[in-house]
Amino acid sequence: MKRLLPVLIFFLFVQNAYSLVKIRDISNVEGLRDNQLLGYGLVVGLNGTGDKSGTAFTTQSLVNMMERMGVSVSKDEIKIKNVAAVMVTAKLPPFGRSGSKMDVVVSSVGDSKSLEGGTLLMTPLSAANGMVYAVAQGPISVGGMNVAESGAKTVKNHPTVGMIPNGAIIEQEVQYQLNQKNIVLNFKDNNLSNLVKAESAINGMLGVKAANITSPSTMVINVPEGEQQNFYNFMDKVLNTEIEPSNLARIVIDERTGTIVMGADVRVNTVAVSHGNLTITVKSTVELGKEKDAADGKAVKTEVGVNEDQGQLMVIPEALKVSDLVKALNSIGVTPRDMISILQAIKSAGALHGELSLM
Questions:
Q1: What is the pLDDT at residue 306?
Q2: From start to end of 2-64, where are the E strands?
């Protein structure tokens, strides 16, 4: 059989479409952030798809829970095929109030086959400081299935991970204290051009010099005295200010899936490219009348063939835009794997002006 496997490739081009984005979409307000929560719990009500009896921590957890409820039971007498041990994760939003609800993700930590149809029992969720901030409980929604019958098995999506919408109730609030005299914005990408545009747009909207760049990724907006009484309205106006963002000259490559994403500002100098394919074919056949000896390898005939395609040399002119580079490479008839290798080689030759990022 052939050793080369076909790979599907998608080209995504990030072109300058002169679209405007809001500052809230490319930056974060310093002091406003999510807090990660984590908890360990049990899922019950599974239809025989829970952890196996050899999963000691699931058995011990179930015994401990039953004892807290006043039921004394030996762990050797418990069957846990309808129970699964899980880790519960959630994000506590900033200014989340006591009594508010949030989504949780439930993930199996044992050898459970599926969490479909299960119900999470009351699980405390704590932060890195060990304090409990929320409690999760409820039926799990699983976007998958794992069905097995008489040796046949069908698995769809990922049935060992599920979600409980609004499955956690916030019990304790995280205290936030914002300095209402200034707003600090941390931009997600280290793109100084976006900061310069944002500074100009905010100052133009306010009519005064209030925004100042303090680092290549940070901006401070001084709140005018007349706006401090309406701080949150003022912050909303700042975050809703629109700018035309500058794209980064970057190529992102995911070699596992053959996905290539090119930024519109990527430039290529004139370069000559030659690339050939090497295909190795291994073919095994059983000689007629000697099928009984095939298990010993005596009647198996193996043929190995090597085929190297003739590479063609093509000059790729200096590309003024990404589509020029793609058209030139496609004209050679390269495969996705070849495309990735060519881009890496062009970068090594110093002809590709842009960041090459491998995932």
A1: 46
A2: 11-14, 21-22, 27-29, 35-44
